[in-house]
Specification:
381 residues, alpha/beta, Nucleotidyltransferase, domain 5, six-stranded mixed sheet, 14 helices, 13 strands, 22% strand
Length: 381
């Protein structure tokens, strides 16, 4: 075999963290011939851990084949940049994996890393999804069944990791909204109604924003063919600071949309829940059960729904079929999730969203929608 090989590696997690698996393929650099395949389930892990695990498996397979020159190709921007030494490795779970990968590198004369679009990493992606599917069904795709064929040959499964089309009937390419709530402010610490008051992040809020920003590095759809996903924020300081942290992490730029502003709480602005209910007991009680009831001098949730719906339609018209990072507030994010679920206004009072939490919803051209994630704060652990 050739001493010059290509390693393509991928990993995924259905939940992030969630049931995870990896796949890797080693190819002859001159002919493209497949020389080795590796895949395995990882139990519960994050996307980044799965990506690194796939990389290590691919490097080990190349070493077993006696390769001396290895070109690694991955669609994980995080892994490629960190292994190339251009980005620091901050997450404690990734440091030992990167160290292990560097140790395997010592087997070769030369190793290079290249980011490739996901579409060019389909072989490794297929193996990773087979590993996750096999794990979910109780089978180990890294082992051969009694018939002597590989798991892929015995039970082929097409990847459907990013689209629910097969079970919803949705048609077309969805617009994926990655919904990020801003980090902590002084008003959120005191649990005060904070609508249009322009307050900055606290020190903790800035750290939350930075941690959330790292979540987007290497995420599917953030960088496509070298173009960074649009980052759209409510035009208030707390959301702009959070959005800028994301832009700094992925290399994008921030734009604003007024439709993503928080509810105008009118005369209740700056009050706590208790203070508002004591000030206007009957009105506050009606406001909690009637979405058409505005706060005194403020805005009703029905009005917010119309405003956010218009903003969503404008963004889809401009960026349809792409992944968008939306940095906003509690009510607009709940409203977009409500639209995705086709739910009533009671969802606004029954759904909790933490500071710097991530939720994901997809809207399809035919009117279908899919909520993929709600209130994930694993990046703050």
């Amino acid at each position: 075999m050739s001493s010059h090989v290509i390693v393509e590696a991928d990993g995924g997690s259905r939940g992030n963290p969630g049931p995870a698996g990896y796949g890797a393929v080693v190819k002859d650099a001159a002919t493209g011939e497949v020389l080795a395949e590796r895949q395995a389930g990882l139990g519960i892990a994050t996307n980044n851990v799965a990506e690194y695990s796939g990389l290590i498996a691919g490097l080990r397979a190349a070493a077993e084949l006696g390769a001396s020159i290895v070109d690694v190709r991955m669609d994980s921007k995080l892994a490629v940049e960190q292994m190339s030494g251009r980005w620091k490795i901050k997450h404690p779970a990734l440091k030992p994996l990167a160290t292990e990968a560097h140790e395997v590198e010592q087997s070769f004369d030369r190793v290079s890393y290249e980011w490739i679009p996901r579409a060019q990493n389909s072989h490794a992606d297929m193996l990773a999804n087979q590993a996750m599917d096999g794990q979910a069904s109780g089978l180990d795709p890294s082992k051969k069944p009694s018939g002597g064929n590989t798991f892929a040959e015995a039970a082929p499964v097409k990847s459907d990791r990013t689209s629910p089309i097969s079970w919803t009937g949705a048609k077309g390419t969805p617009t994926k909204l990655l919904l990020l709530r801003h980090g902590q402010t002084a008003m959120s610490v005191e649990r005060r109604y904070s609508g249009r008051t322009d307050v900055p992040l606290t020190e903790l809020g800035a750290r939350q924003a930075a941690a959330a920003a790292q979540r987007f590095v290497g995420m599917d759809g953030i960088v496509v063919d070298g173009e960074v996903a649009p980052i759209i924020a409510s035009p208030l300081t707390r959301t702009m600071q959070t959005a800028q942290a994301v832009a700094d992490a992925v290399g994008g730029r921030v734009e604003t949309h007024p439709g993503l502003l928080e509810t105008d709480f009118g005369e209740w602005e700056g009050l706590t829940f208790t203070e508002a209910s004591q000030r206007d007991p009957e009105l506050h009680r009606k406001w909690l059960s009637d979405s058409s009831m505005p706060a005194p001098g403020g805005e009703s949730f029905d009005a917010v729904h119309r405003r956010v719906g218009k903003a969503r339609d404008e963004l889809i018209a401009k960026y349809g079929g792409r992944t968008l990072v939306i940095v906003s507030h509690v009510t607009p994010i709940k409203t977009l999730l409500r639209m995705g679920l086709d739910a009533g206004p009671s969802l606004l009072f029954r759904l909790h969203l933490d500071l710097a939490s991530l939720s994901i919803v997809e809207f399809y051209p035919d009117g279908n929608a899919s909520v993929r994630l709600v209130n994930d704060i694993s990046h703050l652990a």
